[in-house]
Amino acid sequence: MTSRTVLVTGGNRGIGRAIAQAFLDAGHRVAITSRDGSGPEGPLAVAADVTDSASVDAAFTRIEAELGPVEVVVANAGITRDTLLMRMSEQDFVDVVDTNLTGAFRVVQRASKGMLRAKWGRVVLISSVVGLYGGPGQVNYAASKAGLVGIARSITRELGARGITANVVAPGFIETDMTAELDDATQAEYKKAIPAGRYATPEEVAAVVRWIAGDEAAYISGAVIPVDGGLGMGH
What we know:
Blueprint: E1 5-9, H1 14-25, E2 29-34, E3 44-47, H2 53-67, E4 72-75, H3 90-118, E5 121-126, H4 129-133, H5 139-159, E6 164-171, H6 177-180, H7 184-192, H8 202-212, E7 224-227
Helix pairs in contact: 1-8, 2-3, 3-5
C-alpha cells in the first residue's frame, strides 16, 4: 500500500489508538487528535475539539504543515451519555450528537478540501452496532451513530467520481477497560448474545479500518462493515 498521511480523531486510547498503531505499523504517517493533545508514542498528537470548527481547522493546519495533506481520515472521536429516554435531558442528546455526528461532519468536511485537490481520499467513519441494532438507554448515541451511515453514503454519491471513498465500520462489544470491569455474570450474559461467543479486540477493528482505507478496497464505498461477531447480523 502507498504510504499516506492518516488522521485518527480520538486516537489517544481504545479503538482509536489501535487504529493509529495499525496504520503506523503499515508504514503510514499518522496523526491523532485528543482534547488535550496527549497521545501515545509514535503518531503526531494534536489537540482538537471536534465540537469546534476553529479547533478542527487549526489541528488540520498543523498536521498539513508537519506530515502533508490528510489523505485518510478516520472519524473516531465520540462520547456517551447513556440514560433511559424519559430521563434523558435535551442537553444529553444534543451534546452526544454534536460530538459524534456533527463532529464527524466538521472533520470530514475539512479533510475533503485536500482530498478534492489530490483527487484521492479515504473517509472511514467509526459507528457502532448500536447505531443499527439499537440499545436501551442509548437514544442519543444510537441516533448519532446511525447518522454516520447517511454521511458516508451521501459523500459517496457526491465525491465518488473524484477518487474518494467513504465507508462505515460498526464495532460491537470490544475488549476495553470498561468491559473488563463488568462482573463475570454480566459478561457471560452479553457474550451469550454474540454468535462468536467473545468480544473483539481493538486490533481486530483496526485491521478492518486499515483495509477499507487501502488500495485493495478502492472500489468499495458507502458500505457499512460490522465487526461484531455476528451480533447485529448486518442490521
